[in-house]
Amino acid sequence: MHPAQLNIFTEHGHKFSVLTYECTQPVEDDQFFLHMVQLARDVYGEYLLSDLPEIDPAVEASFDLSAITRAVRSSLPDPEDEKTKPANLRNYRSEAAELVARKALGDSFGFIFPAAAQVAKGNASQPILGFDGWGMIELEDDSWAFVVIQVKGSDENKSPPGVIDELIGECKRAPNEPSKLARALVSILSLLKDGEIKTVVWRMLERLGKNKPLKLIVAPVVVRGKVEAAYSDISCFKEKIDATDLNHLNAATASIGIDLNSFGKALFEKARSND
Questions:
Q1: What are the CA-CA distances from residue 54 to residues 42, 59, 60, 155, 171 (Å)?
Q2: What are phi and psi of 8, to 5 degrees?
Q3: pLDDT of residue 58
Q4: What contacts 78, CB < 8 A, 6 or more positions away?
Q5: How far are the Cα atoms of 38, 49, 100, 126 from residue 71, in angstroms, in the given order?
Q6: Which end of the chain, C or N, has fewer beta carbons within 10 A?
Q7: What is the pLDDT of residues 148-180, one digit of tens each?
Q8: Between residues 42 and 196, the one the model is more confident about
Q9: What is the pLDDT of residues 43-85, one digit of tens each?
């Protein structure tokens, strides 16, 4: 499911992306929405169902795949559990924005996402601790960079939105928090099966253990609801970046055509359902 619009700018070695996803009404029939529903299910573990042994209808002890699927989906965030929270504090809203950010970064820069933090959360209705997401990318010299993702969702009708200062602060701190980077890498290792990527992650941990810097890309994302994404949402990073030791910044802003609270609520209600 590709964005309706995608523009990428490069300045001073940093990359900036502006994307538009057009989520149409009724949302339940929209292809972008349905793509995000499946992504939500997968980051909470539905992809693991592919590891089950093939089901033999003649064997009584075969797994009931539909029952397991229902159980997995019941573990996703339940919007009903958060209906008394202020809209801007609802976890299903922020996690929906994080999923949009993950897609936007993949569409823009080709990042891969070998593991997701959501699947290991103890409480689905609480936010992810640490970074908002992790990614990786193979560079032209055949080495790998670790991608730290920080996300803010905003329906505020101004550009940049008020949350941008907090986002800038998070991005400035990221390269200087080796313990958080190590924790993220250990979490990825615990969730990985791919041998090649596991070796890459071990090497990254080795560098941290030797007090050597990682090849690190910091990826801030501003996710908009009905407000149209604009370059001015993220262009302020150009002025702020010189005061930091960030070597590489890949920033994105993406709009989805529907307010974030409504989108997140519908997304997780659908993801929890059996259809």
A1: 19, 11, 13, 45, 45
A2: -120, 135
A3: 61
A4: 124, 125, 268, 272
A5: 16, 11, 25, 19
A6: C
A7: 999 999 999 999 999 999 999 999 898 889 999
A8: 42
A9: 999 988 887 766 666 655 677 888 999 999 999 999 999 989 9
Say whether pLDDT at 247 is over 50.
Answer: yes
pLDDT band at residue 275, thresholds of 50, 70 and 90?
confident
Query: Residue written as tokens 């033999």?
Result: 56
Spatial distance between the Cα atoms of 275 and 2, rounded to a whole number of angstroms:
23
The span from the CA of 253 to the CA of 9, in Å, is 12
150: its two tokens: 């920080």
Token couple for 229: 């994404």
pTM above 0.85, yes or no: yes
Contact criterion met (CB below 8 Å) for 233 and 165 = no
Structural domain containing residue 138 = 5-272
Token reading at 89 = 């504090």
- Cβ atoms 161, 232 nearer than 8 A: no
Q: What is the mean pLDDT of residues 255-264?
A: 95
Distance of CA 198 to CAs 109, 181, 188, Å? Answer: 22, 15, 8
